[in-house]
Amino acid sequence: MTRGNQRDRDRAKNNKEQSKKKSKNELTGTEFQRKKESDAAKMQAKQKAADERRAAEALAAAKKK
C-alpha cells in the first residue's frame, strides 16, 4: 500500500489523465437525436437485408426438396 507523498502524486497523476479523457456525451440534444435516428435507420436497413437473405435461403431450401 502506498503511503504519504506517493499516494498524493499517484492521485494527482490519475486526475490529470482523467481530465484528458473525453466526457461521456459531447453532443447537443438535436445532434444526439439526429445520430440516434441515423443509427436506427442503419440498423433497420441491416435487419431488412438479413430478413431478405433468410427468405432467399428458405426459398432455395424449399426448391431443393
Automatic annotation (TrEMBL):
**Superkingdom per UniProt:** Eukaryota
The Basic and acidic residues compositionally biased stretches are 1-20
Residue segments, region Disordered: 1-65
Q: Which InterPro entries match?
A: SERF-like_N
- Pfam families attached to this UniProt entry: SERF-like_N
* Small EDRK-rich factor-like N-terminal domain span: 1-37
Q: What is this protein called?
A: Small EDRK-rich factor-like N-terminal domain-containing protein
Query: What is the species of this protein?
Result: Aspergillus aculeatus (strain ATCC 16872 / CBS 172.66 / WB 5094)
